[in-house]
Amino acid sequence: MAVNYYNKGYNCGEAIIKSVNKKNDTNIPVSIGSPLGRGMSVGSVCGAVAAGVVTIGFLKGRNNASEENNASKHSRDLMNKVKEKFGVETCIELKRKGVSCNEIVKFVDEYLVDFNNA
Length: 118
Prior knowledge:
Helix content is 68%, strand content 0%.
């Protein structure tokens, strides 16, 4: 689903958030993803991955310091899965390796479905 949003003109971060909203009946502001595209505009951490981490926080984050921070565990898992699959998590290096935006958007989107169903 996120790939469809990406192909309609949303950046990778926005596409992930729109997909999460649709699948979870949530209302995370899509605008949160706007600055995340193109590796936060400088080729750093992939915007789809960053948006995945943001949505994990929304779905599983804590509201009190006394609570266990499960979102941190899940975000680490996402980062590790991205590194296992692609070897890197930065936009510039993903592109150098020939990984398309559609490919990483799809991977993160599928990870979030599996994560949320676990």
